[in-house]
């Protein structure tokens, strides 16, 4: 039975002929060449440039539309000492864009200042009141970075005041461009720039290059941070920016970055794109998410270590606060999700949620529910709910919002992400409308997420050398994703839940004489569906683990599958409500009485039968995905027969014991003689009334006494007359061990030992081998 949570799509293109030829020409391993071809690199020259450890692919900045016009105007402002304002944005790309432009202008002797808008006061992009304020202070030229391409009103306001505005941006271009002095954009409709996916920092870097007459290599660390943080495609010029920028970052002269890296205990040689994506960018972003992003520019531009320390402390504090807020809102949102009844689109709203982190929370809920999710902060004083949405590949969120536009005040975004505000009076109707719209995509939304697998590799080929060769493809990111490999025919040799809250999973996987260790973050709950010796196939990303100077291959596990049945350890002494909620399962019990009692209590997608009712074709006709052994079985032969009927269904073992006979054991000869003698000497014992009293007197557990009496009835040693136990004076001498009831007792003890008291790995082996 498959247990994979994702739909693995293996790359099917056959490059074999080309791979052999190119691998020989370039002296690279065939797998590396194949991965290059999958990235759209077709020629020897393209592959060499891509794998070059020191790429220098920088396009002519003057190919950008309006660049010459903008540079001329900036030179004029510098020559005339006209004050220049750089207007940025409050995220990591905006912070680094501002830094690059500010440093270039300052180097040239410009009179320059910068302003980063406050998310909660100014909103996104250029702002008329802010422009008005700075114009009144004497600003004569405004340069926007990472924003402005859709800012018609503020741009035209400034231009009408005689203040030129140069827009540098990379966001979606509107049908009508703002009437600025110059619009510099890599995808300008009248431009001829060969690469359109620069981020804001990348565009600022091109302007700086044009102004300075050469690429400011020392600014590549900031440019790399902006490029990675903004999730633009890491190909073409962006690849050069990040690859070279990481080298600059490893030896940065920025006091703020040096001290931040030290604070985070990041060694120079360890710095890579992951350092930016998971350590630096989130801390820069935290400033603008919660308050003012301006200290981020101060951090990157200061030469004062005390000022750097001050900003770092603020940044660390804001990031911790951001993490706490995200955790709190995520918990509240997940609580709402549990009460929604599994809609196709989650729309979650609450008063008091912090607007600056709603996109992060939406992403977390999408990851948890596999559903498009919109998170809204209710603002009762304004009568609106405002927030962010994140989606999945199967559902275009922007199209959905467009279809439900009548319910929204405003919205914007793209396939996977969007922002919106909605009148509170329309909120409930919007929830209904967007889910009705989603119905046409139900099959796609409910299907497992597709994950693209670059290739299969045998475990024996996974070596440190092979992983080192794959690192030539770095830096990884959007458009150059880290390769995901499938490794088959493995066996689980060790399972560990790790982390303070056991939320992570470590596995050891083996094939013949080779073993690889895996780690999967946030997947600790997978442990309950895995067992030692389970045959599995896995997909994941390969890495090198170093511990105490020793290096070994490691797999960052993404998903796991098995063609064998999976067994789940849910053993318990008492029946719980969650035991009855297993979906699409066939429940197995010992008695018809219990079957009838539970039939209306189990999940509507499941059925319940006794072991004796199961026929050879039952599993085919019921079409269930799992069987649930609710009670500890009492007939070993029947269990083995049923397991042979179907060997692919997952098995959930609850195995509640009716009598716990394993703990009681078989009655001893002394106990049997003791009970018989007592009954002989004490006629007219009333079992219904005196059983507990007799058990206490004889010092025999009451359940054991009941069993001995059942044996006596079967052997006809006793009868009941008028509610009293009477010893049969004419009974025949029997070897009690030959009675079926004694054989059944021994079998029940064995089954309890296996199903309840054994190590689950041993139980799994037994179930698998039937």
Automatic annotation (TrEMBL):
GO MF entries: 5'-3' exonuclease activity; nucleic acid binding
Occurrences of domain RecJ OB (ranges): 455-559
UniProt entry keywords in alphabetical sequence: Exonuclease, Hydrolase, Nuclease
Coiled-coil boundaries: none
Residues passing through the membrane, by range: none
Domain DHHA1 residues, every copy: 347-439
GO BP annotation list: DNA recombination; DNA repair
Tagged with keyword Hydrolase: yes
InterPro entries according to UniProt: DDH_dom, DHH_sf, DHHA1_dom, RecJ, RecJ_C, RecJ_OB, SSDNA_exonuclease_RecJ
Domain Single-stranded-DNA-specific exonuclease RecJ C-terminal: 568-767
Residues covered by the DDH domain: 84-227
Lineage top rank: taxon: Bacteria
NCBIfam families: recJ
Family (UniProt): Belongs to the RecJ family.
The protein, known as: Single-stranded-DNA-specific exonuclease RecJ
Organism encoding this protein: Granulicatella balaenopterae
Origin organism lineage: Bacteria, Bacillati, Bacillota, Bacilli, Lactobacillales
């Amino acid at each position: 039975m498959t247990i994979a949570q994702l739909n693995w799509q293996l790359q099917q293109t056959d490059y074999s002929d080309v791979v052999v030829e190119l691998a020989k020409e370039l002296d690279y391993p065939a797998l590396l060449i194949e991965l290059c071809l999958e990235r759209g690199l077709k020629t020897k020259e393209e592959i060499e440039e891509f794998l070059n450890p020191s790429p220098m692919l920088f396009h002519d900045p003057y190919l950008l539309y309006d660049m010459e016009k903008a540079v001329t105007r900036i030179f004029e402002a510098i020559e005339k000492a006209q004050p220049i304002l750089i207007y940025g944005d409050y995220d990591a790309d905006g912070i680094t864009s501002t830094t690059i432009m500010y440093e270039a202008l300052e180097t040239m002797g410009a009179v320059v200042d910068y302003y980063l808008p406050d998310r909660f006061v100014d909103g996104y992009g250029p702002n008329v009141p802010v422009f008005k304020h700075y114009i009144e202070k004497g600003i004569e030229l405004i340069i926007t970075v990472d924003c402005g391409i859709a800012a018609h009103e503020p741009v035209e306001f400034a231009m009408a005041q005689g203040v030129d505005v140069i827009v540098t941006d990379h966001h979606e271009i509107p049908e009508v461009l703002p009437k600025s002095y110059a619009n510099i954009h890599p995808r300008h409709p009248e431009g001829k720039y060969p690469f359109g996916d620069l981020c804001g920092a990348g565009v600022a870097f091109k302007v700086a290059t044009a102004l300075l007459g050469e690429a400011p290599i020392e600014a590549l660390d900031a440019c790399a941070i902006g490029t990675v943080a903004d999730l633009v495609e890491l190909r073409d010029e962006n690849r050069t920016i990040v690859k070279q920028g990481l080298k600059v970052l490893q030896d940065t002269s920025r006091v703020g970055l040096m001290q931040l890296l030290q604070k985070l205990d990041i060694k120079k040689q360890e710095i890579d794109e992951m350092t930016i994506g998971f350590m630096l960018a989130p801390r820069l972003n935290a400033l603008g998410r919660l308050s003012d992003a301006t200290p981020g520019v101060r951090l990157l531009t200061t030469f004062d270590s005390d000022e750097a320390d001050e900003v770092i402390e603020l940044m660390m504090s804001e990031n911790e606060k951001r993490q706490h807020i995200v955790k709190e809102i995520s918990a509240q949102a997940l609580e709402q999700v549990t009460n929604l009844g599994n809609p196709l689109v989650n729309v979650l709203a609450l008063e008091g949620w912090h607007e600056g982190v709603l996109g992060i929370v939406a992403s977390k809920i999408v990851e948890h529910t596999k559903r498009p999710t919109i998170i809204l902060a209710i603002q009762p004083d304004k009568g609106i709910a405002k927030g962010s949405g994140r989606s999945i590949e199967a559902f275009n969120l922007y199209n959905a919002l467009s279809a439900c536009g009548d319910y929204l005040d405003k919205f914007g975004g793209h396939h996977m992400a969007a922002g919106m505000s909605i009148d509170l009076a329309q909120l409930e109707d919007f929830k209904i409308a967007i889910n009705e719209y989603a119905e046409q995509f139900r099959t796609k939304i409910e299907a497992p997420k597709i994950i693209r697998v670059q290739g299969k590799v045998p475990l024996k080929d996974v070596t440190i050398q092979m992983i080192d060769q794959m690192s030539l493809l770095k830096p990884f990111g959007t458009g150059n994703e880290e390769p995901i490999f499938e490794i088959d025919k493995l066996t689980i040799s060790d399972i560990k839940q790790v982390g303070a809250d056991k939320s992570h999973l470590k596995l050891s996987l083996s094939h013949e004489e080779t073993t690889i260790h895996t780690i999967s973050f946030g997947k600790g709950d997978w442990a309950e569906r895995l067992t030692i010796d389970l045959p599995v196939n896995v997909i994941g990303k390969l890495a090198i683990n170093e511990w105490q100077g020793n290096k070994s291959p490691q797999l960052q596990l993404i998903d796991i599958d098995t063609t064998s049945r999976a067994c789940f350890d849910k053993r318990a002494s008492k029946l719980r409500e969650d035991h009855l909620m297993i979906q699409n399962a066939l429940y197995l019990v010992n008695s018809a009485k219990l079957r009838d009692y539970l039939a209306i209590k189990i999940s509507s997608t499941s059925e319940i039968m006794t072991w004796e009712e199961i026929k050879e074709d039952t599993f085919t006709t019921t079409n269930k995905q799992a069987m649930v052994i609710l009670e500890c079985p009492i007939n070993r032969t029947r269990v083995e027969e049923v397991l042979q009927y179907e060997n692919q269904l997952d098995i959930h073992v609850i195995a509640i014991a009716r009598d716990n006979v394993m703990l009681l054991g078989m009655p001893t000869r002394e106990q049997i003689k003791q009970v018989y003698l007592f009954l002989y000497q004490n006629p007219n014992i009333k079992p219904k009334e005196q059983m507990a009293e007799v058990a206490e007197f004889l010092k025999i557990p009451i359940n054991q006494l009941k069993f001995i009496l059942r044996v006596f009835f079967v052997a006809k040693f006793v009868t009941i007359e008028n509610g009293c136990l009477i010893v049969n004076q004419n009974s025949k001498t029997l070897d009690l061990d030959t009675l079926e009831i004694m054989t059944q007792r021994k079998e029940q003890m064995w089954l309890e030992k296996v199903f309840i008291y054994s190590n689950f790995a041993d139980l799994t082996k037994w179930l698998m081998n039937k």
